[in-house]
Write a structure and sequence with these properties.
By secondary structure, the chain is of the alpha/beta class. It has helices spanning 8-22, 39-54, 68-85, 137-144, 167-182, 192-196, 200-213, 218-223, 238-244, 269-272, 320-334, 348-359, 371-386, 399-410, 433-444, and strands at residues 28-33, 59-65, 92-95, 99-102, 105-111, 126-129, 154-159, 187-190, 233-234, 259-265, 287-296, 306-316, 339-343, 364-367, 390-391, 412-416, 420-424. A hairpin with a 3-residue loop joins strand 3 and strand 4 (99-102).
């Protein structure tokens, strides 16, 4: 017997797919299910059922995932476990490392990565596209969709929403239009609230994610509320900027007994060789920005300490080599920072290495910018702002204060496939060094008190 019991919303989808398969209707379905809602379990149990039904007559069912490792492999493992649960442990046979055979029926697993070679297979029973929002439209159209052309195969696209340009969103919109014409349900959508009706543990989990990320966070909106992002736009909304504004005063010296951390965005080396110019004369010149934060450990904040921005240092056109002694003095002797996250991309690697030697490798954390790491940096910053864990000092009439808010207002975001994003200030409008320095400060705020764990101020 299969141990995992399907819930009503999973059964609804399964029945519709099974009806199309058995009656050779050749329908294409789209299934949006909130993260951890059970779409992979539904898929595995449906595969077991179809292998059972076709084990005598034969045929191929095909499933593709955006990557072979880990997504395709995880799907294969789950199917094998469910076959064992159903009593087929001695009967199913693995073939060629990417197939599972039961009698004369096969479940074939492919990677939908753009570099994979999959042309030539035929889907007789079912064609599944897992995490369809991350599969290339061109890859699907040229290589996977034709697999079911000769057999009028039933096709299922599973996933969670992302933006309005994905394969899943395209299939969804087509299905909704067809539903309006013939009344046949092809699109199934179950957000976190629907899933939580049947699982109290999931309710607590999803509510925890909403508290951690904030209701407006792109990941919560897409992965749990299933609301697609409509292109790019402003990185911070007016509400988020209001949340970021604090009431505390700016500091130039630390308060006794407090813990301080820092985020450092470094100027590009290419501009350091130029003559020193004031930002007022050359507003687009890159700068090195250090943001100092004071940590507050509170019992009601479970995601981590609050961080109050208390000081900014800002150098434009100053070479890294001449900044070394000043950075060490400020971070070590003035503020006694317990954790410093510094941009280590390109020429920044040398600065990070120097600071690590001077301050200690347990204190200095190099941050290498990649598409993935910057995306996480942006999402973490949004989560900190949405939950009220980071606050800017009150207006003090300074140039740093004005530049900080200018960049926060001008910052934009673009969303990419695979749930990644980019955030930046358009070079035509200025730089994003204060934005990046703040994001690195949020990473530095992950500092934990070893000796005071469990105690709060």
């Amino acid at each position: 017997m299969i141990k995992e019991k399907l819930r009503p919303y999973q059964i609804e989808v399964g029945k519709a797919i099974l009806d199309s398969v058995m009656n050779r209707k050749g329908l294409t379905f789209s299934v949006e299910m909130a993260r951890q809602g059970g779409k992979n379990e539904l898929s595995a149990q449906l595969e077991v059922l179809l292998l059972t039904l076709f084990m005598g007559t034969g045929g191929n069912a095909i499933k593709c995932s955006p990557t072979f490792k880990p997504q395709t492999m995880v799907s294969m493992i789950r199917l094998k476990e469910r076959l064992n649960d159903a009593g087929y442990a001695r009967f199913w046979v693995p073939e060629l490392g990417y197939m599972v055979r039961l009698g004369r029926a096969r479940q074939i697993f492919f990677s939908a990565d753009t570099s994979s070679h999959v042309v030539g297979a035929t889907a007789h029973i079912l064609l599944e596209v897992d995490e369809s929002q991350d599969v290339s439209k061109e890859k699907y159209t040229k290589e996977f969709k034709p697999m079911g052309a000769a057999t009028n195969v039933t096709t299922v696209h599973y996933g969670t929403t992302w933006d309005d340009s994905t394969l899943l969103e395209e299939v969804k919109q087509t299905n909704l239009e067809l539903e309006r014409k013939d009344g046949i349900k092809r699109h199934f959508r179950y957000d976190w609230q629907e899933i939580a009706k049947y699982n109290p543990d999931y309710l607590r989990y999803a509510e925890g994610e909403r508290e951690r990320l904030g209701e407006s966070h792109p990941l919560f909106q897409t992965q749990y509320c299933l609301r697609p992002i409509r292109g790019g736009g402003g990185f911070l909304s007016p509400q988020q900027r209001a949340q970021l504004q604090g009431a505390h005063r700016r500091l130039h010296l630390p308060n006794r007994g407090k813990i301080y951390v820092a985020g450092i965005d470094l100027a590009g080396e290419a501009e350091e060789g130029e003559d020193v110019m004031l930002r007022a004369i050359k507003p687009r010149q890159d700068s090195t920005v250090v943001t100092i934060g004071e940590l507050e450990f509170c019992s009601e904040v479970i995601q981590g300490p609050r961080v109050k921005i208390v000081e900014h240092y800002w150098w434009t056109g100053k070479p890294h080599t001449s900044l070394y002694p000043q950075l060490v003095d400020l971070l070590k002797d003035v503020w006694g920072c317990k954790r410093v996250v510094v941009d280590s991309t390109g020429v920044g690697a040398g600065v990070a290495s120097f600071l690590a030697k001077a301050l200690g490798r347990s204190i200095v954390v190099p941050f290498l910018f990649t598409q993935q790491s910057k995306s996480k940096l942006g999402f973490d910053l949004l989560a900190a702002i949405n939950s009220g864990r980071v606050k800017m000092y009150a207006a003090d009439g300074s140039e740093e204060y004005r530049e900080f808010w200018s960049q926060m207002e001008r910052a934009k975001s673009n969303f990419r496939p695979s749930q990644t994003m980019n955030f930046y200030v358009d070079p035509a409008q200025g730089h994003d060094d204060f934005v990046i320095s703040l994001a690195l400060l949020v990473q530095a705020a992950e500092y934990r008190l070893r000796s005071a764990r469990g105690r709060f101020n």
